[in-house]
Input
Amino acid sequence: MPRTRSVTVRAPAKVNLQLSVGGLREDGFHELANVYLAVSGYDEITATPADRLSLTVSGAGAERVPTDESNLAARAAMLLAKHSGAEPNVRIHITKHLPVAGGMAGGSADAAGALVACEALWNLGVTRAELASLSAELGSDVPFSVLGGAALGLGRGEQLTPLDCGATYHWVFAIAGFGLSTPAVYAAQDRHRQEAELPFTAADMPVPQPSAQLLDALAAGDPQALAASLSNDLESVATAMQPDLAKTLAAGRASGALAGMLCGTGATTGFLAADAGAAEHIAEQLMASGTCSSTLVAHGPVPGPVLL
Ligand SMILES: C[C@@](CO)(OP(=O)(O)O)[C@H](O)COP(=O)(O)OP(=O)(O)OC[C@H]1O[C@@H](n2ccc(N)nc2=O)[C@H](O)[C@@H]1O
Ligand SMILES: Nc1ncnc2c1ncn2[C@@H]1O[C@H](COP(=O)(O)OP(=O)(O)O)[C@@H](O)[C@H]1O
Output
């Protein structure tokens, strides 16, 4: 029996511990070796029975999120309804806390949250693994947002293998006052490779591989070793597009972070801290530096979307 009352889910952000970008494929996506970690910053997604599909958004950056059928959460509800033969008769409300176009997979979190909320509302008995596999058509990051935890993502990021984490890792995220478009950053990386006369197509480049050093450090629960293994191939091109990011990275590193890096395609920067106390200190220093608009102190791994 479908539920008659609202279902609310909180859905986490992600950080990429390794983002190795291989060649451009004919379908317009890049081959990746993408190591994901779900972290404790969340959007909330509420699904309420209704006589048609509708969507509203509130919270930070809500004015930059579409409320029509292009919203990833609305697309998720339509996809699940089609898959299960249900009618997408649901009112979805998203409360944004995650940065929009921030490289933390906020939109993917909203899609994952909508899938989990609608699955519960319509009482479909679809497993989390099925939701993850279904969700790949919504976006490359959405399957990870459905599963959470830590995982290696191959292909365009959607082919997931769960990873062991030997510890909870503490992070500070510096939210920028601007966003960066994911396709624009990937395209800038391709242009850079072409201008440098480097190979840039999947036909001419090897498939990127996960770093054994990173996976060992992650499993060992050693933040110092993890810090030494973090990498993001898109950091230099994104920093060239938004030079202010270099100032934020410098400020976080100077305040005692074990490492600082761009989150995905940005514009958020992430700083790994030795422990929870160090994370609070780094967040204070980052705000005092004036190089970001806000900070998020978070830890990971955390599970995927959870019913509240
Ligand atoms: C860079 C990453 C790292 O996790 O995250 P963000 O920084 O955006 O959060 C992802 O690759 C983003 O995944 P996602 O945001 O789901 O992207 P999608 O909707 O699948 O694709 C949007 C566009 O990004 C580019 N794209 C995406 C994934 C990929 N492997 N190669 C690409 O070239 C393509 O131009 C594509 O049209
Ligand atoms: N539910 C959603 N939340 C945020 N952005 C969304 C959503 N649905 C669609 N979008 C669009 O996707 C773009 C990327 O959003 P987001 O997922 O926040 O960033 P990123 O891909 O950098 O992690 C936004 O600029 C917005 O236009």
